[in-house]
Amino acid sequence: MTFDQINFVLSMMATVAFAVTGVLAVSERRVDFFSAVVLGVITAIGGGTIRDLILDVPVFWAADLSYVRFAVLASVITFVAQSFFSKPQILKLFLHVDALGIALFGVGGAFKALELGFGWPLGPLMLGIITAIGGGLLRDVLAGRKTLLMSDEVYTLPVFAGCLVMLITIRLFPDASSEGVLVGTLLALVLRSAAIHRSWRLPDWFLTKSK
Amino acid sequence: MTFDQINFVLSMMATVAFAVTGVLAVSERRVDFFSAVVLGVITAIGGGTIRDLILDVPVFWAADLSYVRFAVLASVITFVAQSFFSKPQILKLFLHVDALGIALFGVGGAFKALELGFGWPLGPLMLGIITAIGGGLLRDVLAGRKTLLMSDEVYTLPVFAGCLVMLITIRLFPDASSEGVLVGTLLALVLRSAAIHRSWRLPDWFLTKSK
Amino acid sequence: MTFDQINFVLSMMATVAFAVTGVLAVSERRVDFFSAVVLGVITAIGGGTIRDLILDVPVFWAADLSYVRFAVLASVITFVAQSFFSKPQILKLFLHVDALGIALFGVGGAFKALELGFGWPLGPLMLGIITAIGGGLLRDVLAGRKTLLMSDEVYTLPVFAGCLVMLITIRLFPDASSEGVLVGTLLALVLRSAAIHRSWRLPDWFLTKSK
Fold first, then answer.
1. Which pTM value belongs to this model?
2. Which end of chain A is more exposed for a tag (fewer CB within 10 A), N or C?
3. Over the stretch C67-123, which tens digit does the pLDDT of each residue have?
4. Cα C164-C170-C175 angle, rounded to 5 deg
5. A83-to-A78, B144, B208, C3, C38 alpha-carbon distances in Å
6. Distance, in angstroms, between B102 CA and closest chain C CA?
7. How far apart are CA B97 and CA C85, in angstroms?
8. What residues contact residue A130 under an 8 Å CB cut-off, 6+ apart?
9. How far is CA A195 from CA A36, A105, C37, in A?
10. Shortest CA distance to A127 belongs to which of A182, A51, A59?
């Protein structure tokens, strides 16, 4: 497989994972099929859409409908097989694919902003984080849940770290774009996966309010 | 009256209905006049605004301020005559005009996306639904209510069905754009109105969680 | 100092004030550093970002990263020195700087819309209000709080009055743009500051629901 093909497969996996979390967010309510699918799709493509609006480029899913297709498909399947997807071990698996998603989309979003000349380093950093968590924020707000920004899950830090390392790598080695993206994505993925696996929480002095 | 004139009158009626629901959403709170009007206007033009941002075309109400004018006027009148608009039979009347609104704006939004070449059929379908329910979602989120995606009202299905029939009709008969839009709009309107009139709920296997 | 320099200093003060309110909004929750900073930055630049998306111009903070820099800095400092910023007299001080912010950004946003030819007077009025309160609305929604549109604080009226006076002044004296902006901003600032200082509430007939 070429680099582009690998990237495509991983992106679709991440899109699927995001859509699954969108539908599962309402699995405990009485929500109808169409609303659940709409929510799944918004969760999957929302972050990248906000990024593209801010960058003033065509939204990424207009040029390649695969994202929407996979998001719809994943939402429909999740709806039909809710009891399967709600199993603890399956949920945990999807949490890790979701981790892949925020790593891939976050660092990818920051890289897109970097290439379009959004000033180093705060522009790409902001847009990377928005790409990674925007869809999840829309999901939480529309589902009436506490947003993921309000949880004590270690969620924003891995994206931040991955984007920062990517930006620094490319700053130091301007010819190593792919390597920079790869290193950043891996770092974000490892940090987020470790946080899930070990139920990491940030130390108290990293939280607004101590226990 | 020409087709355009009829379309204009119906669009303004729908805009008014959306604005009315926006102000009524806060009629049970202590909200001031200016906030209520802002909420009414956001409800009325929010969905089409999100659509136009995603399509990257000028927002529809910049070219023709009639939408904002009617939204402001309707919001002011609703604020002043709250007790009138809160009567059950008036509320029900406006629910039906709101049904006209989601039919007209939903199918119209999908058609706009189709004409701009957003890939068939998922692009126009998504944008049709966003146009129809976007303003209501903004209203619910800003008013701190359960969003309409979370209710068991049959709301998304009529828009979906109307947009789909419009898209299929125009696919089969490429010269019959107006007829396709008309048929889709009527279908969405009839389905939504019937759902209101008969208090339709989707069957349990169409819901994420059974009773 | 030139007019531009004064404007820059005031804008940065307002950006800081907005960011501070964003971080303080979550100071009573267990929210981590990165989420708090992201929320502070979104609060600071959110309103202007929505305005620029609707106007279809590049977002203001892409051209001049000072806004993001000051927002990040203010958020970090607020996070570190929460107990200081939560003191009643400091909070009150920042409420007044926040008043400067909504005056400056509101009337400035309306003026930007006016210059870009958004139809007089409703286009600039709407965009002025969105610029002023958009960031605060995003903050409240993401933090899961009652949005400021739902409170009985006198918040929207000062922005509305300031924008209206600016628009009328420039309509009557087309050569007096700066003066119009200045008068409008001062009016909005005075009204909002007075509302804070004297705990003004709108009279009952200006509210949707009486006590």
1. 0.95
2. C
3. 999 999 999 999 999 888 888 888 888 888 899 999 999 999 999 999 998 878 899
4. 165
5. 9, 30, 10, 64, 35
6. 22
7. 49
8. A47, A50, A51, A54, A109
9. 28, 18, 20
10. A51
Q: What angle do CA B1, B5, B9 make, to 5 degrees?
A: 115
The tens digit of pLDDT for each residue in B87-136 reads 888 888 888 889 999 999 999 999 999 999 887 889 999 999 999 999 99
- Record the tokens describing residue B105, joined without a space: 């704006």
Q: Which amino acid is at B52?
A: D
ipTM: 0.93
Q: Name the β-bridge partners of C32.
A: A207
Place of tokens 């119009």: C180
* Contacts of range A85-94, beta carbons closer than 8 Å, 24 or more positions apart: A85/A20, A85/A23, A85/A24, A85/A27, A86/A24, A86/A27, A91/A24, A92/A196, A94/A17, A94/A20, A94/A21
Q: Enter the tokens of residue B15.
A: 């805009």
Number of H helices, E strands in chain C: 9, 0
| Kind plus residue range of the DSSP H or E element containing B3 | helix B3-24
Name chain B contacts of A53, Cβ cutoff 8 Å: 53-54
Please indicate if any CB of chain C lies within 8 Å of the CB of B96: no
Asked if B67 has any chain C CB less than 8 Å from its own CB, the reply is no
B172 close contact with A: CB closer than 8 A: no
